[in-house]
């Protein structure tokens, strides 16, 4: 299975350990994994202009780093969103990467999606989880799972082992 991880952290330390644990488990299970650092890219939010659906034939009118991640959206069998929580939701970069897939409707081949969330505090995940569940329901992509970690748990061997095992079981 080809897995694309959209890592929305603009800073390496926020989700790095979680993403690396996922990659290790997925590769151990024989999956091909591509990590896309959307948190460090320039991806604007969707304008809702409908260019993509009228004149653009699925291409967005905005020319930015979306063009770097669109092949992964089109080719991946599974997508994973990894994001730190900044004030109760995913990073703006992650949000933009999710919104802008509107130009093609949904990931073309993906049948599964997962969510990895990192935070400094417990109990701050509800908005991000609700958005992810709505996204998977709307796109009819299977919600393969959601893993959250906060504080010291972000880098704890117990949590990283849980993530590796989760990825291996896909």
3D architecture notes:
The chain contains 6 helices and 5 strands, in the order βαβααβαβαβα. A 5-stranded parallel beta sheet has the order 2-1-3-4-5, sandwiched between helices. Strand 3, helix 4 and strand 4 form a beta-alpha-beta unit. The chain is globular. It is of the alpha/beta class and 170 residues long. The model has no long low-confidence stretch (mean pLDDT 94).
Mean pLDDT: 94
List the total number of helices: 6
Overall geometry comes to: globular
Q: How many distinct beta strands?
A: 5
Q: Rg, please?
A: 15 Å
Low-confidence stretches: none
- What is the rounded distance between the termini? 9 Å
Based on secondary structure, the structural category is: alpha/beta
Q: How much strand content do the residues show?
A: 15-25%
Helix content estimate: 25-40%
Strand order of the largest sheet: 2-1-3-4-5
The largest sheet is: 5 strands, parallel
Order of helices and strands: EHEHHEHEHEH
Describe what is shown at a glance.
38% of the residues lie in helices and 21% in strands. The protein has 6 helices and 5 strands, in the order E-H-E-H-H-E-H-E-H-E-H.
Characteristics of this structure?
single chain, 170 residues, alpha/beta, five-stranded parallel beta sheet, 6 helices, 5 strands, 38% helix, 21% strand, globular
SSE order and pairing:
Elements: E1 2-7, H1 12-28, E2 32-36, H2 51-54, H3 66-75, E3 78-84, H4 92-99, E4 112-119, H5 126-139, E5 142-150, H6 157-168
